[in-house]
Amino acid sequence: MHPLLPAPGDRPAPELDDNRLADLYAYPAVLTAPYVRVNFVSSADGAAAVEGRSGGLGSPADRRVFRMLRELAEVVLVGAGTVRAEDYRGTRRPTRGRDTFPPVAIVTGSADLDPESRCFTDTHVPPIVLTGAGAPRARRDRLAAAGADVVVLERLDPESVLAELGRRGLHRVLCEGGPSLFGDLVTADAVDELCLTLAPLLAGGAATRIARGVPGTPPRPLQLAGALHEDGTLLLRYTRAAPIE
Ligand SMILES: NC(=O)c1ccc[n+]([C@@H]2O[C@H](COP(=O)([O-])OP(=O)(O)OC[C@H]3O[C@@H](n4cnc5c(N)ncnc54)[C@H](OP(=O)(O)O)[C@@H]3O)[C@@H](O)[C@H]2O)c1
Question: Could you list the residue range(s) of the whole structural domain that residue 146 is in?
Answer without folding.
Answer: 31-240
